[in-house]
Amino acid sequence: MTRESLVYVDGRFVEKSKAVVSVFDHGLLYGDGVFEGIRAYNGNVFRLADHISRLYDSAKVIRLRLPFSESEMTEAVLETMRKNGLRDAYIRLVVTRGAGDLGVDPALCKKPTVFIIAESMASVLGPREPRVVKMIFSSYRRDAVDATSHEIKSLNYMNSILAKIEATSAGADDAIMLDHRGFVSEASVSNIFIVKERKLSTPSSSAGILHGITRRRVISLCSDSGLEVEERDITPFELTIADEVFLVGTKAEILAVGSVNGVEIGSGRAGEVTKTLYAEFSRIVQRPEEGTPVYQAEQLKA
Ligand code: PXG
Fold it and tell me: How many separate helices (H) and strands (E) can be counted in the chain?
């Protein structure tokens, strides 16, 4: 029998089957909480500092006081990786408002619940070409920046879930969501880039996007590679006639978009710019300086 993975729950490590939170937790009752989805590549947690900093930013906006410092939170993530002996993994770090009486008021909750799941996950990045996905434009609009903005990485994902259901029932892989004005925002759990005549564009923060860590890294990769990127409003028309469209995110890594609403994008296959960035990103994630080493202490001792 394989050993059960260990989950960090409020300072303790418990077996996966025993890792539970209260039915009175406001994270469950109201989606009141924040999270991060993080990846580790070869024993190095990719851009962990950026994820921790975004978690604290999300918590600040929802007035959730985290029970420990950024460095303690970082250590808890690394310890969860070590306890499970992982090198290539997906990490889910969640902080909820905690258990409290019924009622939406966060003041009903005495202390936040913190849990960290780390499970083995192999990357698809590598020498092969990026996977090509079929998209639709969702009829659900991305929540506006003055609504339940996705700038907060909160536990409230119903906006994305509805879009994902719509995509699945249309036979597509995922949905592209438009903002309240009708401009392109992002996919259900990834950011979007378009390429036209080798010039890249990506929706800016006005489109209600999550400030993706992969998006930010791809933008800086482009500037290092001499590729121009503009953060701006993009219409569904511009996206449809683009030479290339690709998605970026922790889970998605880099995916080429082959079609939207049944209309082929460019050749319908991964384009040259997408392939170049994919190849470069595949190398970047393996670099120690792009993340935080999990096993540094042991390596130093050895
Ligand atoms: N937009 C949204 C709405 C997201 O949820 C991204 C963009 C990409 O951001 P990052 O920082 O990952 O480049 C996300 C990320 C999951 C999962 O389990 C979801 C995300 C990340 C990791 C795992 O579905 N969302």
Answer: 8, 16
